[in-house]
Queue: 4 jobs
Job 1
Amino acid sequence: MAIMTTNAMLSLSLSVCFISFPFFLAIQTVLCSTDSFVFGGCSQPQYAPNSAFESNLNSLLTSLVNSATYSSYNSYTIMGSTPQDVVYGMYQCRGNLSMPDCATCVARAATRVGSYCPTACGGAVQLQGCYVKYDNATFLGAVDKNEVYKKCGTSVEYAKEDEIVGRRDAVMSGLMNGGGMFRVGGSGEVQGLAQCMGDIGVGECRDCLSEAIGRLKSECGAAAYGDVYLGKCYARFSTVGAWGNAAKRHSPLTLDYLPVIGLLSFLMLKVAG
Ligand SMILES: *[C@@H]1O[C@H](CO)[C@@H](O)[C@H](O)[C@H]1NC(C)=O
Ligand SMILES: *[C@@H]1O[C@H](CO)[C@@H](O)[C@H](O)[C@H]1NC(C)=O
């Protein structure tokens, strides 16, 4: 039952995040907020409960959360008394989040990674607004262009394919040529966004984005939206009404609409069961 609830909520959030029925707008606003879940992953090795590693991991996560009140990126290495107890970690907020939103997001991601990867020596969680990763093997500063997550929307209507694909490619080359770790652009109905992790250099960022954008184009075809997350960067695009619009308005509305989400997931479970 617990698993079904999670699945229902996940598929609900995945499907409504990118669709803009007026009916679903309130739900979309909440589920596509900076704190909503995109993906997570855990390493196989496990640490022992109440070990020195666990206590170092807790210090690490606390440091990440505290740092997110004043910086959109940071990394830490917590040394142990033995080499087996060392833990490395970082977070990266999407470049246009305010500091309070970044701090809230990293706090949620740090909690989430703990429940998503209980007793794993390494774990990572990406929320819409921020990413948190820790591991007992060092990964800080290393380029990582492995694909971690990809999602493509359904194709745009045939008559609009050429226009949308043309605009998307223009937006993507704008992002490629932009500077900095966070880049946004738009053309007509198409919006794009790219973010590198703060631990890699400018040239590595460009190289990583080139890979992500190449995959978006080749793997998502004429989709209405696409997201490609690699180890150290991500690139996304969408046509109007998809992920672009909701993030700004999250906090004041979240509490107001929680009962609506509860009701909807209840209804979905009724339908499913
Ligand atoms: C991480 O922890 C696992 C399990 O204790 C261990 O097998 C592995 O060698 C560790 N990796 C590093 C880099 O210390
Ligand atoms: C950040 O930029 C994206 C892309 O333009 C936009 O959709 C989002 O609303 C922005 N977030 C904030 C908090 O301004």
Job 2
Amino acid sequence: MAITTTVGNRSQRVSNFENEGLVELGLTTQGIICNGNMKSWQFNRKFLTHSIMSPNFLKDFVQETQSLFNEMGNYWSNLGTDFQIDLAQWMYRFTTDTMLKSTTGKPFYSVLSYYNTLAPTKIKVPGLMTIEPEEFLALITNWLTMVMYFLFFSNLIRHYIPGFRQFTQKLLAKNEQLDEKVLTIIEERRKDIESSSETPLQNDILTSLLIANTSRDTNSSSNDEALKPLTNNEIRQIMLDVFIAGIDTVFQLSREDVIGGLKFKPGTMFCANQQGIHRSTQYWKDPEKFIPERFVKGSEFEAKNLEKNAYNPFGGGLRLCPGRHVAMAELKVLIVLLFGKYDVQLANPKSPLKYSLVALNQCNELKVLIRPKTN
Ligand code: HEM
């Protein structure tokens, strides 16, 4: 993985896309994931990192993950004791609920709403919801489709070719609905904070972003220009980034460079082929086999003396995933609880995994047989 470059170093890897579709969506100057404006990216990323790296946030997040898992376990036992579930669908809702709760501070109930589609007797959703879960999930999917579509189809196709033009309008209209819903959540929480003297305030991301650089911020930073509070629109884009959480390890050359012996012009875009690296026999023994023990220290399958960057799920450098600790905390809690409490077997061990690529690889269906452990 050591590719020689004449001027390249990590500091070159600062900007993301300068794609005209993303420019039209306003994404290259907002939020974090696609933001290519160094100053605004740094400003936004600083607040998000500050919030999600705090020990209190992580502590609450782990507790929330545990309590939602127990709730999901109750739903499963209502459905039977030895039965088949689509784990991909449950997990999609589960991670949505944990992320939405830790982002907005309010419960989201998409696990419950999914249970209600399967159970003969429905459970009433407690409390009032600003957003109906399935509708919100559809709007998030629309956002992802819209971004990929704007990324790959030219302005001419998007706005002038019949059929495509209507599709573009539909995507944008739904995106406006998503924006409105997220702004409503922000305004509601802003009012809650202003009208209460609640201390200490909740540890969710929205609260941290709303109070940053205000008199309620106990960690106010004294350095630099980032002394102004964030606007509703700035907060909206950060929250959307967290709901979607980017995984594009992309970088653009700011000046001419020779990489791996070849000369590249400024502006050339590079995208690391992580999937290729993670499945390369050059770095991994039997890369196509599912051998989790390769990550266990001391195991006979342990992958030893790995080359730098042979395992790089969260990217690297300046744009390294800021949510990596949150993601790992959730995965560890989930794995321990799921396999500690249940016997889980693939319902159809011979059938291939059903997955699709919409910006990210996502598993669409994973039927498993699940039975509570007795001891
Ligand atoms: C297993 C789960 C996750 C994986 C595999 C993952 C992976 C990645 C990768 C590969 C990148 C691109 C890094 C680069 O360009 O070098 C990234 C960026 C990002 N991720 Fe994650 N991520 C995960 C979860 C999360 C979570 C839970 C959050 C939020 C709490 C998050 C927020 C972000 C953001 C905001 C960026 C953009 C960073 C920037 O451009 O400065 N990710 N992620």
Job 3
Amino acid sequence: MNAIATEHSMVIRSATEKDLDKVLEIDRLSFPTPWTHHCFKVVLKDIFLVIEQKEITGYIIACLCDLGLRAEILRIAVHPDHRNKGIAIELLEAILLIFSKENVESVELEVNSANRSAVKLYEKFGFKIERIATFIADDDEFYIFYVMKLTLREPQKVKYQVPKKHYHVGDYYDLQIAA
Ligand SMILES: CC(C)(COP(=O)(O)OP(=O)(O)OC[C@H]1O[C@@H](n2cnc3c(N)ncnc32)[C@H](O)[C@@H]1OP(=O)(O)O)[C@@H](O)C(=O)NCCC(=O)NCCS
């Protein structure tokens, strides 16, 4: 599958190792505890980028779990200079479309309850708070996370599910760099 062109002259494509420096830059600007280069390399096949005028302006990391029945969104971030113009919406729409085509039943994610913009973003897509998780960081700071879930289709009653061979979204959707 080639790159997905969105309505707003953005292109969404898979990440390659060459993109990681820019992804790390956006990550450092977006999270108090950024991921390392190694973390991003491990999930490389699950990283999708949004490109605007040849510039990487945001990314989403999403993977398939439980024989492809469930999916998880691990991280999403948009460069601070490009926020509030619908980039996160485009990224989520693209990834949810892929999950629907793959017959995924539900999508889950964890979000810091204090991150109002992210919670609002996920609610916009119909994600609901499934449960609350607490976390004490190394600095003894206490954090509350929402585990949010979006049901894409009702679970089917199957006795046996043939395991899918691969689990990376990128194994099914090998998005290529737009020419
Ligand atoms: C959360 C984030 C990804 C949103 O990206 P964005 O491209 O600016 O978001 P969009 O412009 O697509 O906005 C989508 C929706 O998100 C919500 N939203 C985004 N920014 C918001 C803000 N500052 N305040 C309140 N709601 C906000 C709104 O519901 C918005 O829809 P609306 O404009 O119709 O109300 C971005 O702020 C970011 O990178 N934050 C740092 C990283 C992060 O917190 N990631 C999520 C946790 S994993």
Job 4
Amino acid sequence: MKKWYIYSTKQGTTKKCGEYIKEKEDELILHNIKTGEPKVTKGDSVIVATSFYIGKPNKKISEYIKNNQELIKACNSTLLVCGTVEEDNKDILEKSFQDNLTLFDHVVLGGHAFDLKQLNFMEKQIIKKVANVTENQDHIKYENLDKIMEQISG
Ligand SMILES: Cc1cc2nc3c(=O)[nH]c(=O)nc-3n(C[C@H](O)[C@H](O)[C@H](O)COP(=O)(O)O)c2cc1C
């Protein structure tokens, strides 16, 4: 039984979350979806991690979920969402993933971070206007990542 962390990232937040979990769960295999589909088999533990941009999750991660519904159902599965989305506006997840949200045993909010050097001019303008962000920030919810560790360990 393998333990997978399948992710996409732009500024590095989602990758950082995976590295944090791996520090305590050494068997975890970090797999960037950009490199292709991982070789997950039924019964594995799978954390599928995506960030949100302009109201949408990563396209490759959405496609992976859509194309692997039966496999995800047959695994111990967690969807980890990085972004400014909070418990009280979680309905965006239902709109984005629709029925696929129910494939997962757990849905966890990972919080967000901003790394301005990874953003282009327009993106920096957007976060300045929408969230008044003008410098790097880290609001990763490490306490929620710890809960994932409890779910996949053992
Ligand atoms: C231009 C821009 C748009 C964003 N739009 C959203 C959004 O619609 N919803 C959300 O929850 N977070 C949004 N975010 C926050 C990102 O999801 C957050 O920075 C996250 O930590 C990025 O993760 P990543 O580095 O793994 O891609 C946005 C960030 C930027 C820079």
